[in-house]
Design goal:
single chain, 308 residues, alpha/beta, two-stranded parallel sheet, 9 helices, 7 strands, globular
């Protein structure tokens, strides 16, 4: 995976060197921050909420062996996250994840507030913003006690509140790459819910897709539409395309969880029989596996390279 992402970075750098899609003035981040949920978390001992890589001996988790997307984006700018700062441990880290396990859109404000209190943002900062999956899952859990229309409206409001924090980051001086939600109606969780309620005549997976879309639509409408400050990575489209043509997007499995143990303890040694961890989209029922993280990385690198 690391080699694949490194090759992708080189390829994108070539694309960005010329032509109509090149940046007017390449943006080189001096610091990188991540606002979000489990997809962007590294624990204090370097574990992630995807599939962890092991050291050469296969005896312990190595935080650099299977980097998550925020690590790869930071490394593109020559930076390392504080929780996995192996190459230059004596140098003060300049990449930080503010993300939290279980975080919802409303928690983005608290995460941004944390950095404001710690010294704030400045012009050469890049913030990676990816949050909202836990909102969709929380709202889905309220059905059928709450009607679909009310839940869809609330999903939209939560997307708007997340967008307000994206715009706030711009006002605070940071450049932002915001990732919209993957189609959670295609997750192993949604597929299981659809199967469990198949006899009701109500497609639970399709409902989860509608909740995802409601959040994403309002997020997209409300963020500041100015490529000089904000880049949007449309992860929903990528997951939908991968579900239709998995091989075209490097996926061998788009419907099953690859891990046999709970995250963040999943490693390349705890993968379900018959699943290739490197090319599986999902790690567990709702969180991204190695290919999901890789696909996310590709989209964000494109935005980092090609936005004005």
């Amino acid at each position: 995976l690391t080699a694949t992402l490194a090759a992708l970075t080189v390829a994108l750098a070539v694309v960005a060197c010329g032509g109509s899609t090149s940046q007017l003035e390449p943006f080189i981040a001096q610091r990188v921050f991540a606002v979000g949920d489990e997809a962007s978390v590294l624990t204090s001992d370097g574990r992630n909420y995807s599939v962890n890589g092991l050291n050469a001996a296969g005896t312990a988790i190595d935080c650099a062996a299977r980097p998550i997307w925020v690590q790869v984006i930071a490394s593109y700018y020559g930076l390392a996250l504080a929780q996995c700062n192996r190459s230059t441990p004596t140098v003060e880290p300049r990449a930080f994840t503010l993300a939290g396990v279980g975080a919802r859109g409303a928690d983005a404000q608290t995460q941004v507030d944390t950095q404001v209190a710690a010294g704030g943002f400045r012009d050469k900062d890049l913030t990676l913003f990816f949050i909202g999956i836990n909102d969709v899952l929380e709202l889905y859990a309220q059905y059928p006690a709450q009607p679909e229309a009310a839940l869809l409206a609330e999903a939209g409001r939560r997307g708007e509140r997340a967008a307000a924090q994206v715009n706030r980051l711009v006002d605070l001086g940071s450049k932002v790459i915001v990732v919209n939600l993957p189609d959670m109606g295609l997750s192993p969780f949604a597929r299981a819910e659809a199967a469990a309620h198949a006899g009701t005549g109500f497609d639970r997976a399709a409902f989860i897709t509608r909740l995802t879309r409601a959040f994403n639509e309002r997020l997209g409408v409300r963020i500041r539409i100015d490529g000089r400050f904000v880049g949007l990575a449309q992860f929903d489209l990528r997951t939908q395309q991968a579900a239709i043509a998995p091989g075209a997007f490097g996926c061998s499995d788009v419907s099953r969880a690859s891990c046999t143990v709970a995250l963040p303890d999943c490693t390349t040694a705890t993968i379900a029989t018959g699943i290739d961890a490197n090319t599986a989209l999902w790690a567990d029922a709702t969180r991204l596996g190695l290919r999901g993280q890789g696909s996310l990385t590709e989209l964000v690198l494109q935005r980092a390279q090609l936005n004005p």
